[in-house]
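QUALITY CONTROL LOG
STEP: pairwise intake check
CHECKER ROLE: data steward
CRITERIA: each record must contain a sequence immediately followed by its C-alpha cells, with no blank fields

ENTRY 1 OF 2
RESULT FIELD BELOW
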Amino acid sequence: MICAISGEVPDEPVVSKKSGLLFERRLIERYIEDHGKCPATKEDLTMDDIVPVKTNTIVKPRPLQAASIPGLLGIFQNEWDALMLSNFALEQQLHTARQELSHALYQHDAACRVIARLKKERDDARALLAQAERQIPASVAGAAPAAVVSNGKRVIEDEIGPDGKKIRPGINPVMIDELTECNAMLSAQRKKRQVPPTLAPIDALERYTQISSHPLHKTNKPGILSMDIHPSKVSLLLCVVWILYIYLL
C-alpha cells in the first residue's frame, strides 16, 4: 500500500470515498486545505470524503540499504543531492524575487519623481495665476476712463466691482434704436430690389451640364493659377489654367 502523493508507505493511511486512492493523512489534509481537490483525479474533495484505514501498529523494519555502510552512504548521497536541488531552486526563487523587488523600487522612485515634478509645476502655475490676478485690477485702474472713439462719442467709464473686475454695460436704448432704424432701412432697400433680367431661370439651370472641371493648381496636379472678372461682362470669370503638354518622340 503506497501513498498516491509521496509514493511511500503511509504512517496514517486514509482512503478517498470518491477515487478509492490511498493517501498519507497529513499530506492529503494539507493538499485539501490548499486546493480543495483530489491530487490525482482533480475532483472536488473534502475531509468528509476521507476514511481512515485501521492497521496494526508494528515497528517498521529497517530498509536493506541501511543495514550496511555502503547502503548508508548511498542514502546520505541521495539526501545530499535532494538538499542541493532544493537549495538551487530556493536560490532561483530568491534571485527572481530580488529582480521583481528592484523593478518595483525603480517604478516607485520614478513615480515619486513624477509626482514631485507635477507638484512643483502646480505650485508654479498657482503662483503665476495669483500674480496675474493681482496685476489685472492695476491695469484696469490705470487705463483711460474716457477714451474717444471714431464716431466722436466718449466711452462711458467702466465701473469696477468688489472683486476687482470690470462691470461692462450692455446695449443701451440708444444703440437699440439705431439698430432698429438700420434694420428697417436695409429691409426696405432689399424689398425694392428687382430680379436682374440676366438671371437664368430654374428650368435653364436644370439643363446645365458639366463640360470640364479645373480644380486649383497643385504641385502634382495642374489647375487654376489665378482668377479675374471679365472686363466687359461682369457675370463671367477668367481663369488662368496651367496645362502641361508632353510630346513623346
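ENTRY 2 OF 2
RESULT FIELD BELOW
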Amino acid sequence: MDFDLDGGVPELETGAVLALLHAKGESLQELLGFHDALRERCFRVRPPAAAARPVVLATRRGTRDQPNLTPLLALLLARFGVPVLIHGTLAGEAPLTCRS
C-alpha cells in the first residue's frame, strides 16, 4: 500500500483495489500492514493533558435496517463534557449518513 499512500497510483486503480479489498474483507495482517504504512505518514495529535480525550465516531458504514444512533451517542457524550468528532459524509456516498 505504500505506493498508493504516496500518490503513485491513479485514482481509478486505487478505487478498484479498495473495492476488491472491501468485497473480500480485510485480514488482520492487512490491517496491521496498513497501520504501519500509515503511521509513517501521519501527524500525531497529542490529547489535552487534563481534559477528556476526544471520541471519533465514524458514520460511513451503516444499514437501513437499524436506527442511526450516532447523532444520539454524540449528543450524550457532549452532554458529559466529552469532545466528539463525527467523521463521514453528510449525504450520498454511504448507505447511511448522519443526515439521513
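INTAKE CHECK: passed for both entries
DESCRIPTIVE NOTE, ENTRY 2: The CA atoms of residues 72 and 78 lie 10 Å apart.
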